[in-house]
Amino acid sequence: MKRVAKPVFFIVAILIIALAVTSVFGVTTQHGDILTTRIKGVSDIRWGIDIKGGVEATFQPADGVTATEEQLEAAKSVIETRMVSNNITDYELYADQSANKIIVRFPWKEETTNYDPYEAIEEISATATLTFRPGNSYENTSYADDGSAVMTTPTGETAATVLLDGSNVKNAQAGVITDNGKTQYIVSLEFDDVGAKLFEQATTDYLNGTISIWMDDTLISYPTVRNVISDGKAQISGDFTAEEATALATKINAGALPFSLETVNAGSISPTLGANSLYAMGLAAVIALIIIAFFMIIVFRLPGFVAVIALLGQLSITIVAVSGYFPVFNSFTMTLPGIAGMILSIGMGVDANIITAERIKEELRNGKSVDSAINAGTKNSLSAIIDGNMTVIIVAVILILVFGPFNMLSFIFGLSTTGSIYAFGYTLLVGVISNFIMGIAAARLMLKSISGFKLMRNPKLYGGAKNEK
After folding, report:
1. What value, to the nearest 5°, has the Cα angle with vertex 333 and ends 399 and 398?
2. Are 468 and 372 in contact (CB under 8 A)?
3. H/E element holding 117?
4. In the chain, where are the structural domains located?
5. Of 222 and 46, more confident
6. Which CATH number fits domain 130-256: 3.30.470.20, 3.90.1150.10, 3.40.50.1370, 3.30.1360.200?
7. N or C, which end of the chain has less CB nearby within 10 Å?
């Protein structure tokens, strides 16, 4: 067996521990009175209706407008897009054509403290007017809570001329491009047929000039026109961070409702589990992990110790995937079935490490050296682990496609079940993939590295019967 350098064990273990700590507790910085979250942790997870409760609201077109079936569906589609863009997967959304209303239920936002349903629905029902204007002249400047400048009240030609508005925008989405080897975050815009023609004329008239984007009287972006755009698809680039690009795309989408919505009624939905039960569940999970760690170390010794570190890494990756650890991704809505998917994937990770440890013990009992036993044991166990995990991946992908934002079979199962089942498939898929990364790749790398130390070459540490000669 080709040995792995001894420091590799410590490097991988330290990286896993660092990931575990930051994924659970997050990272924040404070400048004066402004507290900024740099890395999101468990406290930033958006819990589903079944765990934390949520909001139920009914909307209708404002000013007595009677929407057509197509318009009401368009409004519903925009609200659904906002849900998905904010990673709110545990929601119910209906368009009642006969009553000219839209009904929605969704969980509380993660940082909610006052639980005001009317304040919560602003996240999805805000209907500020989105406009594209020439230049970027403005009158007033104020500062937001995070210290960023807020420019308001357009003046001059910027105030007098509207090139096109939010009704012409089909979609806005944050993305990443590479320009001359440098990664840049951008916002991609797609216009409808009318908007495409208007935007082509606007980019022709203001080539090398500025077309600013306003939400009501607030300036949200002022890109420079580099080319005439005739295909109805544009990119806004600049010195965006991932979070800024995502926020801009969300703001643009927020101005695309075909008419203003007013709230007919709103109320709170009680959770079926509750915060106290969630705390008890978290405590039980910690105790279970400690018991599993003792079991793995006592029964499988050194491979068991390495497996515990790998399991910690697997759990950390799953938390990263739901907490919004990376700024480009919002917090995922975690439901009870989502927690079940996470637990099941941890079980798959334990199983993978047990299979490998048992194979190593068998090779040692057959008289092989430590190096040969580790090499043969990890190799012979790989196919069984891959077969078991691949079947779970296939099931998880099917659940995501059927019950995710695509709602491929919602006409059979109903919209009320999609979010919960999607959460189960999502956490299960992420957990199994992280098992490949940690339970297979990282664990085996650490095991081959630590076996290079003289004190770690006793076969008893791997389940063997006597010292290596």
Report:
1. 5
2. no
3. helix 117-120
4. 7-28+273-462, 54-127+262-269, 130-256
5. 222
6. 3.30.1360.200
7. C
Could you tell me if 68 and 391 are in contact, meaning their C-beta atoms sit under 8 angstroms apart? no
Neighbours of 330 (CB within 10 A): 21
Q: Which CATH class is domain 54-127+262-269?
A: alpha beta
Query: Which phi and psi angles does 287 have, rounded to 5°?
Result: -60, -40
Phi, psi of 268 (to 5 degrees): -95, 150
| Residue 194: count of CB within 10 angstroms of its CB | 12
Tell me the torsion sign for CA atoms 419, 423, 424, 429: positive
Q: What is the pLDDT of residues 150-177, one digit of tens each?
A: 788 899 999 999 999 887 888 888 888 8
Contacts of 306 (CB under 8 A, 6+ apart): 443, 446, 447, 450
- Alpha-carbon span 311 to 353, nearest angstrom: 9
What DSSP state is assigned to residue 44?
G
Q: How far apart are CA 59 and CA 264, in angstroms?
A: 5
Locus of tokens 């970027």: 136
Cα 121–chain centre separation:
21
pLDDT at residue 128, as a whole number: 56
Half-sphere exposure of 170 (CA within 13 A, CB side): 13
Q: Does residue 175 contact residue 220 with C-beta atoms inside 8 Å?
A: no
Instruction: Return the CATH architecture of domain 7-28+273-462.
Output: Up-down Bundle (1.20)
Q: Is residue 352 within a helix (H) or strand (E), and if so which, with residue range?
A: helix 336-365
The single-letter code of the amino acid at 171 is N
